[in-house]
Backbone:
């Protein structure tokens, strides 16, 4: 996205690529369909892995309300352009692997410039 002719997302991606951002993997999960004639067999979801970069932080004690944000939740901020060139958006139900630990995405928020995706993760 450009604002006033400036690719802010690109500038952020370039700046963070040169910083100490952590390597991560977004695992995009797409629900499958039920097998005809086997309603109890469940669905066959597919997943696609996207290498990306980002940061992981813990929520402050004041942010943990026990309902929306629970103890153990973390905030993973991913550089938007590092995920499949910016064409893939994380969504609830996806997974993120950072520092050899895999989390489930609970909620996703983006910024106005579409430069970062802020994912509340659990696991």
Residues:
């Amino acid at each position: 996205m450009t604002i006033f002719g400036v690719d802010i997302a690109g500038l952020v991606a370039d700046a963070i690529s040169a910083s100490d951002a952590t390597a991560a993997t977004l695992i995009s999960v797409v629900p499958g369909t039920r097998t005809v004639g086997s309603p109890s067999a469940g669905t066959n979801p597919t997943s696609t892995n996207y290498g990306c970069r980002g940061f992981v932080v813990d929520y402050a004690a004041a942010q943990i309300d026990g309902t929306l944000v629970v103890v153990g939740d973390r905030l993973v901020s991913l550089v938007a352009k590092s995920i499949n060139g910016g064409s893939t958006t994380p969504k609830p139900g996806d997974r993120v692997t950072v520092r050899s630990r895999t989390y489930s995405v609970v909620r996703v928020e983006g910024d106005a410039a579409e430069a970062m995706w802020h994912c509340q993760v659990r696991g």
